[in-house]
Amino acid sequence: MQAHAGDDARTRATPRTAGPGDADAERPPARPDRAITTRGLVKSYPGPDGTITDAVRGLDLDVLTGETYAFLGPNGAGKSTTLAMLCALARPTAGRATVAGADVLRSPDQVRRLVGMLFQHSALDPDLTAEQNLHIHARLYGLRRRHARVRVTEMLEAVGLADRRRALVRTLSGGMRRRLELARGLLHAPEVLFLDEPTTGLDPHARAQVWQYLRALRDRHGSTLFVTTHYLEEAENCDRLGILDHGRLVAEGTPLALKAEIGADRLVLRTGDDVAARQVVARAVPPGTALTADPEGVSLRVPDGSAWIPRLCAALADQGIAVHAASATPPTLDDVFFHHTGRSIHTPRSHPAPDVTAAAAAEPAAEEAP
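Above: the chain's sequence. Below: its structure in token form.
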């Protein structure tokens, strides 16, 4: 007999303590090393003129259990499309994927029971209270009434909203609503929590607060977090990230390792005569060093940029060129993105991918979601 979704959630949330002599029988099954695995994952959509648009192109991905992994990319890169397939809300055109050990094609209902989802746009009912929104979600996932009440209380306390449990959602701030949605996504103790642009539209303070709760909830529940974002500071919060461009994974690694691949620092000199300064700097730095002169000043990339500042200032002073400001900054994730794609992450795609929400809704579902 297939386990009920609520029973499955309760088992993970409150495991029974083993008694004497039954340690082996009661030991929970080992969690897989990889929470998400994809091989050759493809999602294509037909266009109105008979053409085919590939939103995701041959994605190979491994996300470790318990880590925070981010897809970094601009709007239209294929991030939300990938999430829809991993949550068994859209069928892959080709390839395969497993999430928390369940195959998204063969066992989509099991995948939906094992994952939580924080959508890019709010799915809360603004005319219900915070408590009512969570209770409805818990019941939809099969938690029995008593256990649902316990979980709702636990999650409201976990996200710091216990004192607002009876407040209507429409009276909550944007940051509070996002925290409430986090609580909802974790009610059934998912193995993997997907977060699609979790802080879009929030001010910097609310964004930092949401990430503070995300880290605390991950440490407390051991869930794997899979985040899509185009905010560079959010990607810095993650254990590893993948850079997605035109539906392809073009780079992957820890934020530190990806930035280390760039190597050189960005050095900017603002002088009294940037045109003349560019010529002086070109003679002082190693041959082949690329130089640009723009409204910011003369900029270049050199290893250990701070060590070059006094040398270049001295060379400019010898030519009677005053230096008004000088700075050296290590590579950023935007530099990494530019290195692998040839453009800034904030530059929009010329051909955006189709709206995955509308496209997924048009597809026949293989099974009903719990």
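The chain has a mean pLDDT of 83.
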